[in-house]
Fold:
Amino acid sequence: MKIEEALHLLTLVGGRDKTIRLAGYTAKVIGWLVKNDNYKRLGSAMSAARVVSRLLDMPLLLREIQKDGWSSGAQHPAERALVALRNFCDLLYFPAEHLAFFGDLKVLQLRWLSPSRLWEINSLLWAASLVIDLLLNGRRLWLLRAEAARLRERAASSNSNGAHTAAAATATGTATSSSIGHQQQVEGNEYQQLLLGLQMARDLCDFHNAILWGPQGFLWGDPNTKRPLPNILGAISSFLALRKILAQQRHARRAAAAAAAA
Structure:
């Protein structure tokens, strides 16, 4: 990663958040390895900083829903329903987290819901959102792979039918507009598959942790665990999120350069 890319990454809200997240989980892993609680406290402080930074995220989500609708423009009926359900889970996630956070600080407490119970509810909402995201992205990835197969078949057919034209284009150092368009389609498909693959791998890591920090005894739920695995998975998830942002930045720069050249 170039220095310019790293600096630009830190100018983005998501880039800063995921960098702090990666640093926090890494500090906890180091604390477990060297048996030093100072690193663990550092990681916890970074996690608390991220919770504070999310206090104003709910109005932003509401604005996004108001702008794009509950289904965010999804075409398939089942996909629209899943997107709306995911948005609903995300919308409940933020107040549950805020109440749990203020409850831990004894600033705002509910008689009928303890902060620990609110954190468990928060984790279950997160897990539900991740499951829906995995289902949606799994379908999209399947569709992209089917499209990639069709592009390969079209390329094989074009090569067999236009071998003479391709040879002439190679000899003269030129390329037809159709071949350029096909190459752009292939690259676009590969780019979308990369983004979906990174997102699904990240969701799987986060899903393990969401269940682990949920109610005791629910699946593998154990919110008081001392094992390093959740911190390792959290660090991997954060790295994958940063990798996705970098891929988006590089793709945007290549697209801008291609548009300028045209």
Observations:
- Residues 54 and 94 are 8 Å apart (CA to CA).
- The radius of gyration is 23 Å.
